[in-house]
Amino acid sequence: MSILFKGLKLINPSGVEKAQSFIFHSGKLFPESEKPDLAITQEVDASSFMLSKGWIDLRCMVGDPGLEYKETIESLCESLLASGFTSAVILPNTEPVIQSKNEVDFVLNKAKKYPLRLIIQGAVTKNTDGEDLTEILDMHHQSGVTIFGDGIKTLANGDRYMKILQYLQKFNGVLFDHAYDPLIASFGQMHEGENSTMLGMKGIPSLAEDVAIQRNLEILKYAGGKVHFQTISTAKGVELIRKGKAEGLNITCDVSIYQLLFSDGDLMDFDPNFKVKPPFRGSIDRIALMEGLKDGTIDAIVSNHQPQDFDSKFMEFDLASFGMVGLQTFLPALVMLEKELTWPLLIQKLTSGPTSIIGDDDESWTIFDPNENWLYDRSSNKSNSQNSPWFGLNLKGKVKYIIQKGELISIDE
């Protein structure tokens, strides 16, 4: 079968190329000009579509095992495909925690039928409680795990942090760090500032993140190793990581896409869908995050997909769980950011940026229409959860096809 995509616009680091035709044949995608005499069995009008390398999400949560009512492996994989992602790093915060070969194999075996690359972030402390270390070397040697961290939990124990870095250097592993000081952030519900004061909410100060990043950078200087800071949200955090990179530290970082779109002012109606961690910050922080993306300080943009069931999310704001689903709304969010950040930069933060952190992948592609409108509701939702402020709204930007592992997947079918 040979499928001709007529008029695709390819996004590469230097810009968006002029429209040209591409052929999918024998599991590969290539320009029509390379094989002009190939017999075509199907033509697709792709004049409104854009093409890029397959997208990679470095921070994605699943509920299976133990929390399947929030997200099964199957519903996660369906969500990833519908969202344009061909690879994703899975957080370890399940029940039981992903902390041994058994849990790693369970997730990967259930996902085998999907043409995706799922990469496990193995828990680095038992039950992600921040104290006793897991069998790090055993997980690496038996299951090939190279990424470790405690997912949505922070590593607050400096001694454990240092020992983890020393262990990971035995096989060039990377520590994924969700950096914040849990005591400074205690009982916090949103960003500490003027809006939290007006709402009478206990705030989470930027200091909670800044102090943790600075401490962990100092430990890294002492112990060596490689750290990837996840979901940074403060102007000071961006500055610290920029300085650390300039000093030659082996560090990278990412930002949640919704941190680029929302601020603490969006919480004035007490909508629990806006309750996330780290919290939405102020305008100064957002500007710093945008600049960090532009100058290369921030290496990747992530969905930070955290599904929550209705009962744990839709209640009084201070009792509601943290987290937002972020997969199917990811492309619409990119569309909203495109004028400010441009397609080449955005796609770089989803492709070569993440690849520099987790390694190369097989050839994969994402084809999307940035102008197509669609309704995000129960019928279109692939996730088991719907904790998004955009649920029930018409959104702009829709993924059309995924090419991964030699397979062409039509999202509309």
In short:
With 413 residues, this protein is α/β, with parallel strands linked by helices.
Q: Which architecture of the largest domain per CATH? A: Alpha-Beta Barrel
Helix content: 25-40%
What is the β-strand count?
A: 19
- End-to-end distance: 17 Å
Under CATH, the topology of the largest domain can be stated as TIM Barrel
Count of helical stretches = 12
Shape: globular
Class by alpha and beta content = alpha/beta
Overall tally of structural domains: 2
The description of the largest β-sheet is: 9 strands, mixed
Mean pLDDT: 96
CATH structural class of the largest domain? Alpha Beta
Uncertain parts: none
CATH level-4 homologous superfamily of the largest domain: Metal-dependent hydrolases
Could you walk me through the main structural features you see in this protein, from its secondary elements to its overall organization?
The structure is a single chain. This protein is an alpha/beta fold and 413 residues long. It has 2 domains: 2-47, no CATH class; 53-363, Alpha-Beta Barrel (TIM Barrel), CATH 3.20.20.140. Helix content is 28%, strand content 24%. Strands 1, 2, 3, 4, 5, 6, 17, 18 and 19 form a 9-stranded mixed beta sheet that branches. It has an 8-stranded parallel beta sheet with strand order 7-8-9-10-11-14-15-16, sandwiched between helices. A two-stranded parallel sheet has the order 12-13. The longest helix has 18 residues, at 206-223.
